[in-house]
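It is worth pausing here to work through a concrete case rather than discussing structure prediction in the abstract. The textbook approach is simple: state the sequence, then state the predicted structure, then interpret. We follow exactly that order.
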Amino acid sequence: MKSDGKPLAILEGIRILGFTQFLLGPAGVQYLADLGADVIQIEPPGGGLFERNYANGDLFLNGVSTVFLCAHRNQRSLTLDLKHPEGKAVAKRLVAGADVLVQNFRPGVMARLGLSYEDVAALNPRLIYASCSGYGEASTYRDRPGQDLLMQAISGLASISGRAGQPPTATGAPVVDQHGAALLAMSVLAALFDRTRTGRGQKIEVTMLSAALDLQMEVVTNYLNGGHMQKSPTSLADMLHPGPYGIYETKDGYLALSLVPLSLLQEVFQLPELAPLATDRFNYPAREQIARVLELVMRTRSTAEWLEYLVPRGVWAAPILDYKGTFAEPAVREANVILEVEHPVAGRVRLLRFPLEFSSGRAECWRLPPMPGEHTQEILQELGYAEAEARRLQEMGAV
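Step two, the predicted structure:
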């Protein structure tokens, strides 16, 4: 449920302006908001923010997008027309007193609005300016859209997933967006720390292309140094690990087998076909043979029977679960990963908690994902606008 207090206040006193949309930018500033920062999301008047009007699987809870709900907690909403002179003046007044500005428009948009790094650094030299885009401001592809699936395609991630002989496979979740969001939050924290020593702000650039490649650090390093890069037609999970590393069909489902020394594998399974292959600890060249032998054996028992047999014998194994199974698992229940909140429009909403633990407290939802411009009057008055002046700005459409 919504907390009355703010138990995790690591970034208390830090004000962050979010000129963000889609997933990467909002998720990145949500991490910082969960840590206690005062995050003010700037959005256009009229509720036109993309993620308010788009929902994965077309899932809206009483009209509220689940995409919006998943990445906008603990933030305040200020509506501004950044093309209106008075709306732009409000933005610049905010910038003058902020610690961080995060934006993920396409390159050039903020400059056209008069809010480039050079523009705002002149107003506030201590400001940290985090700019996120698909390819970066200096890239040949700077004007191309930065979107998760497109990044999986161009970075090679889709090409290395799936089995040999099958089409390239996209991941089942927007992993580039989410990794980019984590990198964004990490970079802001590093820049805030650096500012304590130098007294100066700086510009940060986060690109989805770099995030997509960073996700593949291990595989890319192998490729860059002449490593084996052939996908397997068997149950093996990737191109790099020795057998039996992969996902195997059982009598009633699927089971993952991780790194297992071949001597242990032979001891546990007692298969004559494995004996001549177990002379090497892992025997990478024999990975396909190992997988084919185990594919036949694994189908002879159920997933539960295999787990009961393998885990006590030291074999690294885990069941392949759907989400229903995942959230029924004791370890997942004990981790307390779900946060339930009562939204005034969407009703009861279940979200994932902030993923880190601190001895100083745990991040809670102390501010619900806001309605469009819900905090506009509150923020304007904090900036020194009189109540009548704030109403005037709203009436003229500047905010």
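Step three, interpretation. The chain has a mean pLDDT of 93. Residues 87 and 398 are 5 Å apart (CA to CA).
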